[in-house]
Amino acid sequence: xxxxxxxxxxxxxxxxxxxxxxxxxxxxxxxxxxxxxxxxxxxxxxxxxxxxxxxxxxxxxxxxxxxxxxxxxxxxxxxxxxxxxxxxxxxxxxxxxxxxxxxxxxxxxxxxxxxxxxxxxxxxxxxxxxxxxxxxxxxxxxxxxxxxxxxxxxxxxxxxxxxxxxxxxxxxxxxxxxxxxxxxxxxxxxxxxxxxxxxxxxxxxxxxxxxxxxxxxxxxxxxxxxxxxxxxxxxxxxxxxxxxxxxxxxxxxxxxxxxxxxxxxxxxxxxxxxxxxxxxxxxxxxxxxxxxxxxxxxxxxxxxxxxxxxxxxxxxxxxxxxx
Length: 323
Known about the structure:
Methylamine Dehydrogenase, Chain H, four-stranded antiparallel β-sheet, 1 helix, mainly beta, 27 strands, globular, 40% strand
């Protein structure tokens, strides 16, 4: 059963990122080269998005980073990105400082709102991709990825070190895929993982424990509403909520059967997107969400909020914008 679930999760990631993971590939097979300047980068796959002050920043295939200073109406490609590897996630602590992660375990950083980036880490000896990145402040951050890969820094990414995680319940080693790392206002860290598991740290990443949502599918997305309710979602539209800092979880009717790839909170309202053009919406106090499919059935990969709290969507086909 676990092999089947892993296969589904890996197949989804391959489909979205275009990565052919080969752990025994030689280092020279895919060199770390600068991103190409595309004529229209907005039509390429975009996998992660974040706000940098008033700016929207989205990342995706071929090391593409696109920027919008008008809430998603128009975009331009970043001036300088040192990698052409697929980028899966991006996070900013303020309008200037941000990090992005992706294929070959790359981590890149910016100090000018995403205009230019510098390489902090890459490992071309094995394609162990990083799926998500989060910083608690301008110095202390984490990146997570395939087969329980977790990296930590306390100097803004100048140095990254591996975090040894405990084995999950019933296992002898830590080998779960870690898909999304995020935190609540109290500083509790969460990592949405496979097999319905959520990693949690209540001491700033010093120790980690597994909490079980009750589901068995992979969890690819997570967010926290303003009242502190924690949400995680993923395979086949499964959505779970916790009102006690991730201690216990309850299943929420998302109204969807298509997999959820991204969640974002606007106050106590929660928005999500996923495969087959699915969009979901609900509130932290609600028992169920509403859902709808876009007519184009585009595989939606990320959702960010405009300055007016309107959803801005991204997909396998690039920028989608508000419906």
